């Protein structure tokens, strides 16, 4: 049984190079991915206005670029580290601030991630498996969603795939240099989305510890060096923030004590996993909680209404393939590359998937993009190896189960949006059942039936997710909780859109000459006004409304110095008790005269 999943020859073995079909196939994959992620990109406007406003601020002020400030006056930062903003702002500074320069960098990150995943899988399982992995990743709905959007998840996913590539290269010759590069990738992943980047570390470490062709002592020493690389590549910015005088930098949004380290361990760290003040979970799914916040926690969360159509199309097949692969290679040599690869991608999938499934804090469906590379690679590596061993009845049986389960599960997922191409789910179900039957009957023993069967298997595994991904790319997405799929699926319980812009108010703010055109007790409203007017707007209290920035005393000083033009009410949204929003609102109402501009209450603070 250990020969069922035989390790293919190293990709560098043939002197004549790869087959002729490989290069055009790879170029076609990358070209299709680029079209999918870039086509009609500006239909989504600025996407997530919160991060787009931070990019605009970074183009207006260098300190805002460094710290990821929401406003160019540097009152406070967004509630994430700024690595993804560094990249997008650099593009916007060179080519000008626009919808395209805000969204296109993420699309290009997606193309790069698909290419890197191909290279990573190819090194172990050959070009065919690499192409399957790249295509499965590119056509995962949540991947198309996030790589056409301006959330930090796009850069995080690219860095995680880059880390996996470096680990595979490191394992080949027990290379500490490649392992250090993997650590650097994860360190910058921390500067993108903090502790989420660390979820892949157990899988990376275990793969190297089991398979690197050197002594156990050297493996441990190399891993220790990689851990140091993680700390240094993430820690330099944490140290910079902590050592920078707080009075001359923006407040760290989302933290209770103006600390980036505290933000990583609290609101954006353990608070996300265990739940805490400022972190809300799905808390009930259909029983009352919004699926836009993850729905019910539990082992089946990734298959539920919130995550199912985002990521789970190939998840059952991936789990079957991983279990079979681990079993068939259980007696393989320690340095067996197929087993190492299954440990790496399977560990990534299981650890991240279980954490996502049981997180009781804030959890949005689009987080699942971090699972997409692992799902795609697991299916491609195990599926390709099982196909190579199809003359073995056990391999055929496992492959048949992967195809059959995928067909049935795709039918179920498509049935959640019954108005979306109704015939598709029936066609996939029939095709899948025919393919399953043919595999069990041994049709792979004959050349022509085997070729037709291979096509049927690929169509069964991919047709549903490809259709849903196409529908995702055809839609415009805005707001803080975007979702994939056709228009009929809506947000399945969460908001997908920005508040409409008050053009009259935007025109008023555009004429201001003060340091800040306005202040408003909502970061989302501040971002919207800033994008519409091109001017700095203070989002009092930050994203959750609970950040103590600015304090009432700081606000009063700025008003006295003539630095804030207007105060704009937002209907009482997100006024956290700790942020001073209510105190500032009461002070403004007691000392300045209200007027209405475009239906919104506005106070002129310069009178």
Short structural summary:
It is a multi-pass membrane protein. This is Glycosyl transferase. 58% of the residues lie in helices and 4% in strands.
Walk me through the structure.
This protein has 607 residues and is mainly alpha-helical. Among the domains are: 79-385, no CATH class; 503-604. It is 58% helix and 4% strand. It has 23 helices and five strands. It has helices at residues 22-38, 49-60, 62-67, 83-95, 99-125, 127-138, 141-146, 153-173, 176-193, 201-211, 216-243, 260-274, 308-311, 315-328, 337-358, 372-388, 393-415, 422-441, 447-473, 503-510, 523-533, 552-560, 581-591; strands at residues 516-520, 537-539, 564-568, 594-597, 600-604. It has a five-stranded mixed sheet. The longest helix is centred in the middle third of the chain and has 28 residues, at 216-243. The model is unreliable at 9-15, 283-289, 489-495 and 574-579 (pLDDT under 50). One of its GO terms (cellular component) is plasma membrane. Keywords: Cell membrane, Glycosyltransferase, Membrane, Transferase, Transmembrane, Transmembrane helix. InterPro entries: LipidA_mod_glycosyltrf_83, RgtA/B/C-like, YkcA/B-like_C. Residues 510-591 form the Putative mannosyltransferase YkcA/B-like C-terminal domain. One of its GO terms (molecular function) is pentosyltransferase activity.
């Amino acid at each position: 049984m250990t020969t069922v999943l035989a390790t293919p020859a190293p990709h560098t073995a043939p002197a004549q190079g790869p087959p002729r079909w490989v290069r055009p196939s790879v170029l076609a994959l990358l070209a299709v991915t680029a079209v999918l992620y870039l086509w009609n990109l500006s239909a989504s406007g600025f996407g997530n206005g919160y991060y787009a406003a931070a990019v605009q601020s970074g183009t207006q002020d260098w300190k805002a670029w460094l710290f990821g400030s929401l406003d160019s006056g540097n009152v406070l930062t967004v509630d994430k580290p700024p690595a993804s903003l560094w990249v997008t702002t650099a593009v916007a500074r060179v080519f000008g601030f626009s919808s395209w320069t805000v969204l296109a960098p993420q699309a290009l990150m997606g193309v790069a991630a698909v290419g890197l995943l191909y290279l990573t899988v190819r090194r172990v399982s050959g070009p065919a498996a690499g192409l399957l992995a790249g295509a499965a990743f590119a056509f995962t709905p949540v991947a198309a969603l996030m790589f056409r959007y301006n959330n930090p998840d796009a850069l995080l996913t690219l860095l995680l795939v880059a880390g996996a590539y470096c680990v595979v290269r490191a394992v080949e010759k027990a290379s500490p240099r490649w392992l250090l590069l993997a650590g650097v990738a994860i360190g910058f992943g921390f500067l993108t989305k903090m502790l989420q980047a660390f979820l892949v570390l157990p899988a990376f470490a275990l793969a190297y510890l089991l398979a690197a062709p050197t002594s156990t002592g050297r493996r441990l020493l190399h891993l220790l060096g990689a851990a140091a690389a993680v700390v240094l590549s993430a820690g330099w910015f944490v140290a910079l923030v902590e050592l920078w005088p707080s009075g001359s930098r923006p407040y760290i949004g989302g933290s209770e004590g103006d600390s980036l380290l505290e933000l990583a361990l609290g609101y954006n760290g353990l608070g996300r996993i265990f739940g805490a003040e400022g972190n809300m979970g799905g808390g009930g799914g259909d029983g009352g909680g919004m699926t836009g916040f993850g729905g019910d926690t539990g082992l089946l969360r990734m298959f539920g209404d919130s995550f199912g159509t985002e990521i789970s199309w190939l998840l059952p097949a991936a789990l079957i393939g991983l279990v079979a692969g681990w079993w068939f290679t259980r007696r393989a040599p320690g340095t067996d590359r197929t087993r190492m690869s299954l440990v790496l991608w399977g560990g990534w999938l299981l650890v991240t998937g279980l954490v996502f499934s049981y997180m009781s804090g804030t959890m949005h469906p689009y987080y699942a993009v971090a699972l997409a590379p692992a799902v795609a690679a697991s299916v491609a590596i195990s599926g390709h190896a099982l196909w190579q061993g199809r003359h073995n009845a056990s391999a055929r049986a496992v492959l048949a189960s992967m195809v059959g389960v995928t067909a049935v599960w795709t039918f179920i997922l498509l049935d959640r949006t019954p108005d979306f191409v109704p015939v598709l789910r029936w066609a996939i179900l029939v095709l899948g059942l025919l393919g399953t039957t043919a595999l069990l009957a041994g049709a792979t023993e004959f050349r022509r039936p085997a070729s037709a069967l291979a096509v049927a298997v690929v169509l069964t595994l991919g047709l549903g997710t490809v259709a849903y991904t196409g529908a995702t790319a055809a839609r415009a997405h805005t707001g803080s909780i975007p979702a994939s799929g056709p228009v009929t699926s809506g947000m399945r319980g969460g908001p997908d859109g920005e508040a409409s812009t008050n053009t009259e108010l935007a025109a008023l703010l555009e004429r201001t000459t003060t340091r800040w055109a306005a202040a408003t007790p909502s970061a989302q409203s501040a971002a919207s006004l800033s994008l519409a007017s091109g001017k700095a707007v203070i989002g009092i209290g930050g994203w959750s409304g609970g950040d103590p920035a600015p304090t009432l005393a700081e606000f009063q000083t700025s008003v006295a110095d003539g630095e804030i033009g207007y105060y704009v009410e937002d209907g009482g949204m997100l006024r956290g008790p700790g942020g001073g929003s209510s105190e500032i609102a009461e002070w403004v109402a007691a000392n300045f005269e209200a007027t209405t501009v475009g239906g919104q209450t506005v106070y002129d603070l310069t009178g």
